[in-house]
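User: I'm preparing a small set of examples for a lab meeting where we compare how different chains pack in three dimensions. I only have the primary sequence for this one, and I'd like the structure in token form so I can line it up with the others. Please keep the answer compact; I'll paste it straight into my notes.
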Amino acid sequence: MKPVRSLPILLGILFGLVLAAGALLLTPAVQRWALLRAMQARPDLQFEAATVAASLFQVQLGGVRFKQSGITVQIGRLEADYSLWQLLLKRQLVIGRLSGRGLLVDASKLSARRANAAAAGVPAAAPGLLTQIKLPVGLVLADCVLEGRVLLPGSTGGPPVEATCQISGGQIAPGQEGELVLAADLKNPAAAARVTALRAELRLRVRQTEQKTFSHVSLTAVVEAEGRDLPGQEHLKIAASLAKTAGGENYEFTVDTLLGGKAEKVLALNATLPAGGKEYAGSWQLLARAAQLEPFFLGAGLPDFQARGEGRFSFTPGTGAVGLQGSLSAEVNRLEAWEPAWRAFGAVKLAAQFDVAGVDGVARLNQLHVSVAGDQPVLELSAARGAEINLKKRRLQPGSSAGGEALTLTLHGLPLAWVRPF
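Assistant: Understood. Below is the structure token output for the 422-residue chain.
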């Protein structure tokens, strides 16, 4: 009888321990300790959180700060309503509402050139990256509102450029298309700036499958410039999309401008990956000039240039092999906008015909002819016999056992003014 009588006591003790453990896990101090300990597994990420409070239906974070790759992010308060039961029983993370206040993204310590490259590269890369993701659980996001500020690099020696931004949207769920919208206003602190403000709207549309992947992703960014002497209707549009179908994948990336009511194309990329294939193949076209892009750099200053080119490219993700073919012609002047010492170059003209392939750190020059000129022809460079450049060892090597020259450099005359800056 004693074992029978002791069984309820043991069960009661066990139940009490479970309740105590549950109560301990719901204690904010314990939750904060667990979160900070988990973040220690990322030595490349500096993470802090002043407060953490999670229940069965809601999580709240306060005083969050993290830093990575020179960018610091602070969040005053972040709240999310979610369903723990949906997560445990149906393996779906259901967030009814995600809201945040006091968001500050400080990228002012980055170089202006690096920040501009990142801003241009994100719309191109995001669709491809998202379609490669397989979520551990289904994601449902009904509503999202985040508000804050972004600090970007200003002109040399000048204060940072501040932007106010808001992220809104939702309706993301398996089997349907959802959307997130980023609206931002950038003010130029320079008093004499020709471009005083930029207004940007970025729309991300995703279609999530029942298999927890994304079958269609599109990202569109529209930037409007305002300022002195601008005629109005100064728009820059960057659009990228990747769609998966039974026949394979289709990728598109375009950059267009609207200046004074006239639409002009700057860049177009198109690529396809057949079903079961391993290589993306497509075409590229470039038609750009400084007047198209300068209004959207907040007066940072660009050299006078115009460039025209077209061709084809290929990329194999499994091996990293790339191929690029085509022709390019460009004229550049006023290089002192980037480096004062480069004023001596004056006007520079470039023309190139190329067929280049690369894999495992070796670039093969199947065809190459480059000519550079100032007021007079300066040099010509030609490649023959599939010359190869080992980028890892920084070494030129012939690509064929046949005799002859791998590279031919003809120097017509190097202006002394071009040598002085070095």
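A couple of notes for your slides: The two ends are 98 Å apart (CA to CA). The chain is about 15% helix and 55% strand.

User: Perfect, thanks.
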